[in-house]
Amino acid sequence: xxxxxxxxxxxxxxxxxxxxxxxxxxxxxxxxxxxxxxxxxxxxxxxxxxxxxxxxxxxxxxxxxxxxxxxxxxxxxxxxxxxxxxxxxxxxxxxxxxxxxxxxxxxxxxxxxxxxxxxxxxxxxxxxxxxxx
Length: 133
Known about the structure:
mainly alpha, elongated
């Protein structure tokens, strides 16, 4: 029996749905932990703000809604995937910096996982339509 991802997920864009779930999961982690980031000290308040996690969740929801929509605009897809890449790159960089400063291995692990999700995002960008023709 051949497993089909499109049957498990409900759209023509299952990779977008997976990416959306990853973004929403990262956002929930950031919202639920108010003391996750501690370095640099002047930015800890901003980085631990629920707005940062909320932005991850908002992009994840918007990406998911794009994937299940019948009216998929190419420009919206491109902008969402680029915003996702930017947030993931920022988050991975913050994780690696915190891991280096603190020496906590879980920060390095989280950074590597976010780089993997970022590479997954890049693969989606590479396969996505770029123009309307």
